[in-house]
Specification:
single chain, alpha/beta, flat, 365 residues, 11 helices, seven-stranded mixed β-sheet
């Protein structure tokens, strides 16, 4: 029963609308894409190669952030590269009262509240929130990309709970992007994920925070140097309310985060890897089930041999006679089946010969 539960949580049902948009691609992950690119001779310097590889990199990085995503990029994708669900932990009686949405990086992962372990990750109750992800492998960002993301979100059907649109780029957010996120009327989020799959920044607007709920935040995995934190000290969670205009924001140089990596927290506890924990637990339960089935079959064989050894001579001979009769019946059925197959082949051969003969006679006439 537990195995079915965790398997159902790991593989959420795919909406019918999503099934119709999935392309019949010859690759589903990074290894299969690299093999496909080598097979067709796709240049690693081409935009298609780099963009597709970045999409798979983002997909794998967000799996550690409890997002189960499927790649749907291609012709007619309306700018959407990944679709799926984000599994948000639910408050339980064991968790403390909800904290602020954004977690400070002062204590890092050495904070007792973050280090505390309440329950195993694979047993945490979660609720799925639909998400769509746009991946842009560009080192230059501007507030216009947030407006484009908002337009893409407007073209998608309304869902309950509302869908969160996420933009993923290798470049950290700027003041102009923060302002554009705040002014958006849709739940939007911004991710900074490097081309190596390191999640360096995750921010969302107030509307998205209402969809996500209280308690979710981010924390630094490694404490950065002073140059790693931007002027606002914004690490993740709900973005601040900047009023910079777009012209100033476009000319602003984005900060760099060479040693920065973030983790998701819920009420102070790190909740990265819930889906990975469910997958590992499902695999462990599958192995345990197979081993139990093998042991059961072995036990049955041993019990059968033991019964045969303890039977009287007459019963043992009768059992052997019945087993021999069953063997003879199986052999006869197999021979009869083979005879019928040979007969059908012979009839087909004769029909073919008859057709050839009629064709030759027509040709002679």
């Amino acid at each position: 029963m537990l195995r079915r539960t965790v398997a159902a949580r790991l593989k959420p049902p795919i909406p019918r609308s999503l099934k119709n948009t999935l392309p019949n691609a010859k690759h589903q992950d990074i290894p299969s894409f690299l093999a496909y690119a080598e097979e067709v001779g796709l240049s690693p310097k081409s935009s298609v190669y780099r963009g597709t590889l970045y999409e798979y990199t983002v997909r794998e990085a967000l799996f550690t952030k409890n997002m189960h995503l499927l790649r749907c990029g291609g012709p007619g994708d309306k700018g959407i590269d990944l679709r799926g669900t984000w599994h948000i932990p639910l408050p339980t009686p064991l968790t403390s009262k909800s904290t602020t949405t954004t977690t400070s990086n002062a204590g890092g992962l050495n904070s007792p509240s973050i280090q505390s372990s309440l329950t195993p990750l694979h047993t945490l109750p979660t609720h799925p929130i639909p998400v769509l992800v746009q991946c842009k492998l560009s080192l230059k960002t501007a507030p216009c990309i947030i407006r484009e993301l908002n337009g893409t979100h407007n073209s998608t059907p309304t869902t309950i709970p509302p869908t969160i649109a996420i933009l993923s780029t290798p470049t950290p957010t700027t003041r102009g992007i923060t302002s554009a996120l705040n002014m958006a009327k849709r739940p939007l989020a911004y991710l900074c994920i490097s081309d190596r799959g390191t999640v360096r920044q995750f921010v969302w607007n107030t509307i998205a925070s209402e969809v996500i709920g209280t308690g979710m935040g981010v924390s630094l995995l490694h404490s950065p140097s002073p140059v790693d934190v931007d002027d606002e000290g914004q690490e993740g969670g709900v973005v601040g309310g900047d009023t910079e205009n777009d012209a100033d924001a476009d000319s602003e140089a984005p900060p760099h985060f060479p040693n920065k990596e973030i983790v998701l927290t819920f009420n102070g506890r790190v909740v990265d890897g819930i889906l990975a924990a469910i997958k590992a637990e499902t695999k462990r339960l599958d192995i345990f089930r197979l081993e139990a089935e093998k042991a059961h079959k072995k036990q049955l064989r041993l019990e059968k041999k033991l019964r045969e050894l303890t039977l009287p001579e007459e019963e043992r001979l009768a059992m052997e006679a019945r087993a021999e009769e069953r063997r003879i019946v199986r052999v006869r059925r197999k021979e009869e089946k083979q005879r019928l197959l040979d007969l059908e082949a012979e009839m087909a051969r004769k029909k073919e010969e008859a057709r050839d003969a009629r064709r030759r006679r027509r040709e002679e006439k």
